[in-house]
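Sequence, structure tokens quoted for completeness.
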Amino acid sequence: MTTFLQLHLLTAYPPSNLNRDDTGRPKTVEFGGAPRLRVSSQSLKRAWRTSPEFAARVGERVGKRTQRLGEAVLKRLTDGGMAPGDALETARQIAGVFGKLEDKDDKPAYIKQLAFVSPEEFQRAHELADRALQGEKIEPSDASLLGKSDGAADIAMFGRMLADSPAYNREAAVQVAHALTTHRAAVEDDYYVAVDDLKNATDHDDVGTSFIGVQEYGSGLFYLYACVDCDLLARNLGGDAALARDALDALISCAATVSPRGKQASFASRARASFVMAERGAQQPRSLAAAFLKPVTAGSDGLDRASLNALLAFRDNLDKVYGACADDRMQLVATPEMAEGSLADLVDFARGSVS
């Protein structure tokens, strides 16, 4: 039977704009008939997998999402002495395995879409380029360059799609929900001005501000849910159980401590989760977001305690109706009033999900 690891987090963010929409406003959603702030799963996953915390746990065993693989191969070929025209054709041959190419007259060695490329695939592309440098006639193909499993922890976790080579797609072992506030939340406006430091107050023709602007922000306590198919994670990594455990370590550590980087210079809205619960078992996974269909209000306990109480009550009610929704659970709480558990214990618990 499949082993699932489910994560539930509550994280409070002060004024911030972590994840913007196309107009620059914080992303929102209506849930339970009430407006909430939202942070997309794409933003969260990008922040996690590119963070120093992620690298500290999985090292160089991460992929690169890029259009520029052909550029890297082209540089290797020209640095190796191949004529520019021949180098470009060879680089396009190799990069073309990873996706359709841009027009040669526009971006000569670019792939049209971002391709998620593992370290092993980068290595194979470079080895093929080296063979071309030695005068060998190369015939790049899916089988010679692409892999169905490898040592890229983030590709194994979050999956990839290669539209032209679907046999080498990777099903995501980690599902990440959009985070949303447990309560009603509004987007607010910050009116600001900027002044030219070289203005002279004696120049009476222009003594006012040099720029006026508005940036939007919000604040709130966010609920985040993630689910890991631990067996699929190990399979995506070619059966490397040790790396799968490191990947779970990276996931739970980053989810609890890493914030999206949007507008951090303006808001310094870095936060750590005030509640994390990990659940392990073969039961059908379920989110606990419905605990917040009725927006939480602060009351005498504050939003953090009220939200935690609502989440745990809904979890217990689901267990009563459907039976235990997990075999084992562990949690940490870090609020101004309470400290319980530890991230280290949660990581050990998560690592135990892979045999």
In short: The CA atoms of residues 78 and 87 lie 6 Å apart. The two ends are 13 Å apart (CA to CA). The mean pLDDT is 94.
